[in-house]
Amino acid sequence: MNAARKTPDRNQEANSASKNDRLPGSTIAVLAVLVVTSFVMMLNETSLSVALPEIMAQFDISASTAQWALTGVMLTMAIVMPTTGWIMDRFTTRQVYFFALIAFLIGSVVAAWSPTFSMLLLGRVLQAAGTAILIPLQSIVVMIIVPAKRRGTVMGLISIVQATAPALGPTFSGLVMTVSTWHMTFWIMAVLVAITGLFAVKYLKNVGTTKESPLDVFSVFLAALAFGGLVYGLSSIGTIVTGGPAATAALVITIVGLVALVFFVWRQIKLAKEDRALLNLAPLKVKNFVVAMLSILFIQATMLGVSNTLPLYLQGALMTSVLVAGLVNLPGGLLQAILSPFSGSMYDRVGPRPLVIPGMIIAAASLYGLATVDSNTSVGFIVLMFVVFSGGLSLVLTPMMTTALSSLDHEVYSHGSAILNTLMQLAGAAGTAVLIAIFDIVSAAGGGTPEAMGDGAAQAFLVGAVLLTIGVLVSLSVQRPDLSGSTKTVEPTAAKESSEN
């Protein structure tokens, strides 16, 4: 009888463990606000791609000029993101969030109203500045307030946004433009982000603590010169290859960017000894962070390169409508949204390798399939290959993002996120520029016919497949992070710092 009394009630233990595993309501509220806001911002990031022909016609500008409505976003984000480590250290969660929100809101209104292309570009720059601050903030908050054993699951749920928003962007814009103009897409963005801001006023709480951190203005200047110059140079690869005065200018800017990057890294190493670095490079000493980051960069370069080349191929070689070109990405994005929570939950159980390596192989195989396209390929085959591609990536992105940041000490989460997100902008610019340059060069060599465009797309997708194959080899070295020092979490609080907003 005494033994029976000492026997634990397994159901009671299970219920207790289940309750302990549940995230507090305040944590869920903070995550919900950040996720919804990031969804709107990421939806905006890709929504303008199918509107470029209409923008070119309205403002009477060339394709190379109109492309700055997209390239300008990457350029701005590359300049702003290196400063986000310092921003997250210095200001509270609410201060950072509302600054990002207001910048995006003003940018949306300016872009919606814009009577000239210059005003549209200004609006896009303001939007990009807000996005560049909000996305790292979301990742950092997750790492601080979510227990280590639940991070994969939560990151998987957040990945739904990262998967569906970019996929829905072209579809959203295509639908709006069937009943209105591209201006309306920005007015809708302004309304959506304003509504999320109203919820944030009530539900968003501060996370973690701030510290006095002096701003090194010269480092900011070097970062802008380095990362801005590199993104511009990478985005101008096609121009550099074809030659001419514009190519010389782009090459000079790229070299200036590289030199500035060397000085930026040297200065950060020097200032780190005094705890004054704008961007703490300590995460680059952690092998697992570097391996996971490199894998993510290959994925980012390939994913954006393929996504931006695909509409050109569909409209140029297959002669599809804008709406069809926008809808092709949708099934793959939805599949990625369905599988991402699964991969996040599995990551918590088995770690990254059983998910990442098969996922990378599947994604690479689908691109080798896309490398067989021509001007007679069916749209159904393109959709199928993109669905397989997205399915493979859904097994990779969440585990790799979680692995990268979980490999770091708590004190450098913000700087690790800043490094990762900045380099992702460079990788995205490089991947987009390389694949589109290959598409343009091959297409032009064949006379710009649909058949030539089909050949150009096939060559571009083949290069994407090779890049992802290299990513597979890199991912073989990834290890499950040691979470023994990452179990401490912080609940959102409305206490002392909240009063500061």
Give a verbal description of the structure:
There is one protein chain. This protein has helices spanning 2-6, 10-21, 25-47, 52-59, 63-66, 68-80, 84-90, 93-113, 117-145, 151-179, 182-203, 217-235, 237-242, 245-272, 287-316, 322-327, 330-350, 353-370, 379-394, 397-406, 413-445, 450-475. By secondary structure, the protein is mainly α. It is globular and about 60 Å long.
Helix fraction?
Answer: over 70%
What is the CA–CA distance across the termini? 59 Å
Specify Rg, calculated over alpha carbons: 23 Å
Give a quick account of the main beta sheet: strands, pairing sense, barrel closure: none
Order of helices and strands: HHHHHHHHHHHHHHHHHHHHHH
Shape: globular
How much is the average pLDDT?
Answer: 83
Poorly predicted sequence stretches spanning 5 or more consecutive residues? 1-19, 494-501
Number of helices: 22
Number of strands: 0
Structural class: mainly alpha
Q: What fraction strand?
A: under 5%
Keywords:
globular, about 500 residues, 22 helices
Structure summary:
Helix content is about 75%, strand content about 0%.
Describe how the helices and strands are arranged.
Blueprint: H1 2-6, H2 10-21, H3 25-47, H4 52-59, H5 63-66, H6 68-80, H7 84-90, H8 93-113, H9 117-145, H10 151-179, H11 182-203, H12 217-235, H13 237-242, H14 245-272, H15 287-316, H16 322-327, H17 330-350, H18 353-370, H19 379-394, H20 397-406, H21 413-445, H22 450-475
